[in-house]
Amino acid sequence: MKQLFPKLAFFISFFLLIGCKKNEAEAVAATEIAKNSIEYASGLSIVKHEGYSVVKVSNPWPNANKSFTYILKEKDAKIPDSLVSYTTIKVPLESVVVTSTTNIPFLEMLEVEDKLIGFPHTDYISSEKTRKLIDKGAVKNVGQNEKLNIEQLIELAPELIVTFGVDNNNPMLDNLKKSGLNVFIQADWMEQSPLGKAEWIKLYGALFGKEDKAKELFDKIVLSYNQALKLVAEKPAVSTVLYGSMYEDVWYVAKGNSWVAQFMKDAHSNYLWADLKGTGSEGLSFEKILVKAKTANFWIASGSFKSLEEVAKANPHYAEFDAFKNKNVYNFEGKLGATGGTVFYELSPSRPDLVLKDYIKIFHPDLLPSYEFTFASKLK
Amino acid sequence: MTDKKRNTILFIVLAFGLFLMFFVSISLGSVTIPFKDVYTSLTGGHATKSTWEYIIINYRLPKAITAVLVGTGLSISGLLMQTLFRNPLAGPYVLGLSSGASLGVAFVILGAGFLPPFLSVIALSSYGIVIASTFGSSLVLLLVLLVSQRLRDTMAILIVGLMFGSFTTAIVSVLTYFSTAEQLQKFTFWSMGSLGNLSWPTIIILAVCVSIGLLLSASSIKPLNALLLGENYAKSMGLNFKNARLIIIFATSILAGSITAFAGPIAFIGLAVPHIAKLVFQTSNHTVLFWSTLFFGAIIMLFCDVVSQMPGFDVTLPINAITSIIGAPVVIWLLVKKRNFQ
Fold it and tell me: 20 to 30 A Cα–Cα from A67, which one of A179, A248, A294, A304?
């Protein structure tokens, strides 16, 4: 399953992950006045100094035993001796290769998508803006699934490759570094808080010298998220919710502290497994699910179902739930891009406000009468 | 005590064991349902909770029936192959039939995207998958047989079977490389094996396929016994050897193919069960072996199913893991004691 990584980057983040701990306290103390500009993301810190920034990625993958520190150096800037041992990246970047579709919206929001020159498995990218660049040949395909093609990358010679690690063994990353390419390990997929994931836009702000623009964009998202929270504040969380789907005999539900569970909580709904401690997902037997969720009001199905008929065909047991009988089944992953990429996987991490609004519209439709779903669709 | 008397008693015990195991498999699961409610649900009454009734009638009962079909079918196909190859280590999984069926299914699930929409719908239907899977398993079986004509050495045949197995696995992995995440996920979960998500109509398709396979096998009992004494002897008895062998091959392929299509590639049952039957009944007469393998196959598969969802655990284990955990030691033990079988 490792091959699926780019597309499933955050699908897996709530399916497989174990836990992440906050690690914000260790900001670099190079100068007294410098302050970490990151508020919500737990695995990222960016400290801006005169002429350079210190970026630390502290939780790069599940059970990581190391963290990564990078120095983003502006032209002609001087780096203190204490920092020269870290990887230095010259900013603003003129060319970049990213490996996760979740990073594409960040580039577009900052209007630097023209700096993207390569992506592994470009078919997974759905955004029309970037798709045009791919069709024009400006963005090269540099691999299949998560496997980067090292020869193509050397030929392409981007100033930076922004990628991610899966565990403590990343022979491919070592190979890339050996070949003289600059590699940045990002970990937006490890974040569990909706705003924390979105705050990784600030990393791209720092890489492209657009810190202020990134902050402005992120603040807007925070504002929009909080407005949505305010909207639903008075509504009691009465609707019970079943989440997930069955793969063969096992039903995967999101655990209580996961990214998805957070949205369901923030949208004031009563997610039936909200008390299940931990992040990621848990596989439960169908019997347990049926007993607990037979009468649930809503079912948020995972998977790319297009109709109730397709759901019932996939597994006849699905039809036994009241939510199915009452046609209260929604899913988020049904919308696909022109070349088969899942829009939700790509766009949702950077736009938590839209995800939250979708959830609010599902559980409290009267609050957002004129709002159209961005990701969700009601199955018919 | 004569053999006949002993066998009669053994069969009575087996029949009782099957009945008991069937009931145990329906009574136990991750949700605890009182015995009384299990009984009322099964006899058409209403259980205390409607969800319990649904679990018993629409989840556990079909699963138990699937387990019986899968267990009997795979065990009999193993018995047929062991006699056909005159090799104690033959079985649908070991000789690559399951991998052949996987290849068929992989072509259908992973390759459906390349077909025009109306064809891909047909290909992805239950029938399409069964046909592809049976086709794949019979192809491998025929190839193995073809090679075995030239190589009389039983060890060589096994190695050839293993090679076909890894060859098909390699083709499957090349296919997965070019398929979408979703297709890949579907195929990966299929390959883990499952008894639990068959609807009644699919169970009927499976039951029909397994019944055809079993009937053909039952009709081949005499040729099978003759085959034990060697092909030449079988011919000298006036047996239409070619015909008989064709029927046995077809029966094996349809059993292994249809079961693999619906339940995934299930390991070791086909290899281990016939040996257990042979050891308990101490005979090589297929009239006895056919029925004893049938019973043992069903009982052992039901047992694996019960283990895979032990009460008190929230999680069910993949059935393939359980059959391997139980089956692999049996195979090792057989290898150690191999002299006795040759």
Answer: A179
